[in-house]
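hiii, so i know i said id send this last week but things got crazy w the move. better late than never?? heres the sequnce for the chain we talked about at the cafe, plus the structure i predicted for it. fair warning i was half asleep when i ran it
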Amino acid sequence: MREPYQILSIPYRVVDGKPLFCIFRRADSSYWQFIAGGVENGETTIEAAKRETIEEIGVEPKNIKQLTCVAYVPAEVIAQSRRQHWDKNTFVIPEYSFAFECDSEPLLSNEHAEYKWLTYNEARKLLKWDSNKVAMYEINCKLQLLSSI
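okay and structure toks below
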């Protein structure tokens, strides 16, 4: 049963000292986003992030890190059939963000039509959701800090 929580999972890699982010174009629409999905009954958010990543891109995330940013997304973006058991006053749900270093190429599920590895600025131009941009900003800052040490 789908819980009223959302996860966001950001695959990244560092090439020649520069981070690249893997973004995905939805198969059912034309917009770009990171891996997103729901928390199932009894799962923690990190367990959901790992499961959704495996389901959507066939990659088991290792060393997944929870990010600080939490966004809120409209409940209506979740199919009515998936949220029919939620309280009728649930209008927004929290989205918890995670990032992991991805050293393999994604194997797309039917949820996505294509993927691209892009720099921060390139990905920022294509991403639809502000929550994706903010989470990417946070992991980008952390990666820049690590590279300067």
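btw The radius of gyration is 15 Å. thought thatd interest u
miss u guys!!
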